[in-house]
Amino acid sequence: MMRNITVGTRCYPLSQQFVIQPYAGLSAMCNVGDKNGRGHMEMISDVHSYQRDYNVSCPRASLAPFVGADIYLFSSLALELQYGFALALDGKTSISTIYDNGNTVYATHSNMHRHNVQIGMKATFPFRFTSGDTNNIFDLIYMALGIYEPDEHKTEKRTVQRRRNLQNVLKSY
């Protein structure tokens, strides 16, 4: 099992006024866990059997370029989507398998490069809600209840619009 310490950097090409913030970056990982592992396994049944030997040499270091996007839901909270490809330095895996007591050895080798997909939430500090965030929350709730359309009544003042929406909710019950 690999236990990594990771450091990295990101570059955001767009200004902070955009809701979707794409980025590219590079991270370096250092494996602080076990370096090598070996093992043997067998499976025998009435019909088939196999023997498998494996040897794993975990990389001491990996470099991972990545791309992603932060999608801001509120001014301090974003949905984070990221894809990376870790390039293992000196990592190797070899597996040899023999099926049904045959003489043919099936060999598999890997250099331990790996794909990485991350989905998460990102909070910026100091964490705060602005009046625009509060209005967005109300708009989301109103749209979920079906009593607000984003383009309807743009010229109405917000208090008049909320009063009318509240009356619509009370009438629906």
Task: Characterise the protein shown here.
The chain is of the alpha+beta class. It has 2 domains: 4-127, no CATH class; 129-173, no CATH class. Helices cover 17% and strands 51% of the residues. It contains 2 helices and 9 strands; from the N terminus they run βββββββββαα. The protein has helices spanning 131-145, 158-172; strands spanning 4-11, 20-31, 36-44, 49-57, 61-74, 77-89, 92-99, 105-110, 114-123. The strands form 2 sheets. It has a 5-stranded antiparallel beta sheet. A 4-stranded antiparallel beta sheet has the order 3-4-7-8, with no helix packed on it. The longest helix has 15 residues, at 131-145. It starts with a strand and ends with a helix. The relative contact order is 0.14. The mean pLDDT is 83.
